[in-house]
Amino acid sequence: MTFRGARTYPSTRARGILGVAALSTGAALVAYIVASLSLAVGLALAGVVIIVAVALVWRRAGTEERSLVGRTAIVGAIAGVVSTAAYDVAKLALSRLDPVAYDPFAVFFSFGLAIGGVATSAPTAYTIGAIYHVFNGVAFGIGFAFLVGKRGIAAGVLYGLFLEAFMLALFPGWLKVQAFEEFARVSALSHVVYGALLGLICQRWLPGALAARPHRQERQVTGGRT
How far apart are CA 40 and CA 86, in angstroms? Predict the structure, then answer.
């Protein structure tokens, strides 16, 4: 059985494999917070998962489907960069409007220490954390492009709220957040901005073939073997 299929969406299986693999960078953080697995090790494992997923899909895909997969990943990455930038601007603006002093980017320092270790200097930790934050935003954008596709702004908002649910479940305890209401309000609205923009960009820029339902794949039988 192959993933080929001219003028069709990449197969459901291919989209699922690549979409879930893209989300593995976030799974690494969940494993760090919940199970104390080294974030650096978790990200290395996520890299392996992504490489294996791409290799598996690429090996079985035909030329046209490879092109669609590549274009989907590129659009997802671009959408992820733009949406992450909008998310950060929204967090900054909303935190300035809030009467309670709140640093929306303090988490970068925590990310950096989780990856580089407790001996990491503050400037280096902030830099590492910021890079991880952007990398996560891009990976989530690619995951959205494969798993959700061209379903639009509403689907993007739901996706952003899905990410927000994980953040609210894990971050307050891990970061020892004091101003929880302010944290939750700023975070939720920022994730809505992230998801809405992600959905809009993917709806407009993803290849047109991605809007079509895939044709039923036929098994290739050679000598009685699939």
Answer: 27
Instruction: Please give the Cα distance from 84 to 139 (Å, whole number).
Output: 11
Q: Tens digits of per-residue pLDDT, 125-161? A: 999 999 999 999 999 999 999 999 999 999 999 999 9
Write the DSSP assignment of 85-99 as a string of letters. HHHHHHHHHHHHHSS
Give me the pLDDT at residue 182, please: 87
- The distance of Cα 103 from the centroid of its chain, to the nearest Å, equals 23
For residues 24 and 50, the answer to whether their CB atoms sit within 8 Å is yes
For helices 39-60 and 63-97, the axis angle rounded to 10 degrees is: 150
Whether 114 has a pLDDT exceeding 70, the answer reads yes
Lowest pLDDT segment from 88-102, 137-151, 174-188? 88-102
Q: How many CB atoms lie within 10 A of CB 49?
A: 19
Angstrom distance (rounded) from CA 115 to CA 41:
9
Among the listed residues 68, 60, 83, the one whose alpha carbon sits nearest the alpha carbon of residue 201: 83
Question: Domain coordinates of the chain in residue numbers?
Answer: 12-211
Integer-rounded Cα Rg, in Å, for the chain is 19
DSSP 8-state assignment for residue 209:
G
Instruction: Pick left, alpha or beta for residue 144 (phi over 0 → left; psi -120 to 50 → alpha; otherwise beta).
Output: alpha
The whole-number average pLDDT for the span 99-127 is 91
pTM of the complete model: 0.87
Beta-bridge partner residues of 225:
222
